[in-house]
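Re: weekly structure request thread

Next one in the queue (248 aa):
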Amino acid sequence: MRTAPYWGVFFVLLAASPISSVFAQAPAEPTPLYTGNVGGGLAITSGNTDTKNFNLTAAVVRDPKTRNVIKGNASYLRGDQNDLLNLDRSSFNVRDEYTLSGRTFVFGQVDYLRDKFKEIIFFWAPTGGVGYKLVNSASTQLQLDGGAGGVLERNPGIASKKSGSIAAGQRFSHKFSSTASINESLSSIWKTQDFEDSLTNLSIGVTTTVVGNLQLKLEFLDSYKNKPAKVGLKRNDTAFVTAFVLKF
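Done, posted below.
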């Protein structure tokens, strides 16, 4: 069974004190139920080669500070060179995590991918499973999870294909300071009808605050399909994304 080459990378990634006062302190602001961000970037070149590339991203987290946390993220990438489209990809993930103990959790999620140049009209993958937080501090989080579910994929000229699936994932985040952080995630889905047919997504991003709630994000994305829809298609599609992100 051939697998994506990135799982080895995972193993390499391994408030001021209160001032006393005779006056009563102002009550702390309530923690928001929803947090998230929206962002986008644009790159245009002209001359011997005319290119246009833009990206849109969004993320939201619902955290009532109980055992249950819901997360969602989405992205859209599009680009052309000399008025010829050469990038058209959209994806999203919705995930519900429920903590069983301090570090163990169960989850349910749905992944979606559409990639014109990978010839994927749609790739739906609902998954459920269990995970464990190896590190769970205020500044650093590292977790592993695994589960099972199904896959529904459609390619041009081919009827939709269904299969069971096995999935594994890993996520890492670290805050260098109140204004800078790094996030990395790696996930793979294998079809049970053909374990050679797998999809792996890698994301590594660094974020820093520009001013207020405005941030600058640099991110590397890699989508690896071990068994492309047809002969001649490359397994890897990568993108380096620069975007301004507004937190809320």
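Residues 15-24 have pLDDT under 50 and may be disordered. The longest strand covers residues 158-175.
Next request, please.
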